Sequence to fold (689 residues):
Amino acid sequence: MGYKLVIVESPAKAKTIEKYLPKGCKVQATMGHIIDLPKKDLGVDVENRFEPTYKTIYGKGKIVKEIKDKSKKADEIILATDPDREGEAISWHLANLLGLDLKEKNRIEFHEITKSAINNAMEHKRTVNQALVDAQQARRVLDRLVGYKISPILWRKIMKGLSAGRVQSVATKMVVDRENEINAFKSQEYWVISGLFENGEYAQFEAKLTYYHQNKIELKNQQDADNVLAVLNRGKYQVSAVKQAQKKKNPPNPFTTSTLQQDAYRKLGFSTKRTMMVAQQLYEGVEIKGKGQLGLITYLRTDSVRISDEAQTSCKQYIQKTYGSEYVKGGRSKQKKKGNVQDAHEAIRATDVTLTPEVVKDSLSREQYRLYDLIYRRFVASMMSPSIHDTISADIENSGYVFRATGSKIHFPGFLKVYRPGNADEEEFDMPLLKEGEKVTALKIDANQKFTQPPARYTEASLVKTLEEKGIGRPSTYAPTISTIINRGYVELEEKKFRPTDLGFAVNKLMCENFSNIVNEGFTAQMEEKLDAIAEGGQQWQDAIKDFYEELITDLDKAVNIERIKLPEEETDIVCEKCGRNMVIKRGKFGKFLACPGFPECNNTMPLKQTIDAKCPKCGKDVVQRKSKKGRLFYGCSGYPDCDFVSWDKPTNEKCPDCGGVLYEKKGRKNTLYCANKECGYIQEQEED
Fold:
């Protein structure tokens, strides 16, 4: 007797889905894509409508044989790959591989791995969506053409091992452009006057000088500040206006792929790659004690904030039971759909609101728990009432100069009971209830010199946000894009901010001068719109490729004769032990290293050790900065292997004021210095720049 063969991508997903399928079903995992363009050849016939040549991926032969053997014994084959373009392409490749009729309804789609979702999908089988397949093919062919046609030019004109890509090249350009803005920025001086005041009831409050006769005040130098201070010192202070109000803050929408990546970075310190990896685990299923294998969140690749009616109802019932009816939001305002939003998916949410983070905590790894907690709270918060804040502002006037003091208190927490947006908990500023016309005393008036700051370097969160705002790529591609530009050495992370390397500047220069369309933000965004049009059946994918390729070939012909770009070499004070020259820093496939400038006469090389301003706590030698195999920075003794000192946190030359131990610097939402002596416990928060 035969069976129904259900094919998914991963073993974890297979294990989770198995418990919900009807009897007589067997589940097989493909372990991702099994068929793709060849690795070493272009695999695209540019003379024949860009027809791709597909081959079984190297190493997947055993899985392909297993799938074929099981399919021969099956009465029915059901394709249950992920509900996106990549998943649709995998189903299409499987259908062709197994000789399935593409007109038959053998494809199921579900956005969460729950019993109701699986049963509903099994009752509503559909055909493979050729438009989605074509959109994936178009993206794959586009990326292959860019990579295989431009990368060899980078090898010849700069160095081997480089790559170009539609999204990675734009991301690199954005980092380079920001660095150029920073370098070109000219800081300007300005002054800020603030005061500490006291009313007749001896209640103190702070206020900042804001206006002069209803005009916003600007103090450009110390002379301006001194002139104002001279007037203030002669006059008296009086409350000229008081305004009280209540303000509502609406809850945030549930997570999309992009907003999840941003919030996980800001709140948890997760890279985009780590976020997507852990979210995939939560979606595919985790073994929960007493409940078996469960998928905890809905599908992680989405740019919609829609929540199903069923999920809204169950969540509101949970909120009413847990917090009270006053915490239940009356109704969610409908989000305006952006042109490129794929609304077939829901937002990222918990599949079962009764599975609180506390319930599943013991079954999850630390990072799984932290990400699930974040997703769960954001989902629940999105269904809760707005928070209500009592606000007060008061103007303190002296000779036409107006100081403004503001304060706020939470009147009703609403969604803040569960989730607080931003990097940290919102601060509430309390101040006395002042009366108009009331006299106040200035306890202290300070004038402080400030300087305008250049735009900040991109973090992973801000780069993801900007890429999405500009319509470049898809949020699901941001993690591999960021990993690529780091691994290729185009950018490096310095205190969690992207800084372009000399190599990044060189690659960007070549791309901008010779392939301006590829790195043009508007052009790249238009390509995404064309891919969306293909997915919706509104455009032939070969036509979109043809327009792009014609311009690419023109640029390639012009780029043949460009001059080679020589990367700058930084000379060091390290002497070559073979010939006596000063070694220079070069970059290779595996990063920076020291090389003798006398090559080819002298081919001496040495690993590059970047010392920091600290001494080894164990032996007193210099501490060097190193990278783990996964690219994470750590610190070790330059005397290794004689000294085995290593630390993830950066040691400093500062001593603990309590016990005299070594202070270490820990990076996070707030940088801290802490004492290495566990019995001491000294910790000090550092002010951010």
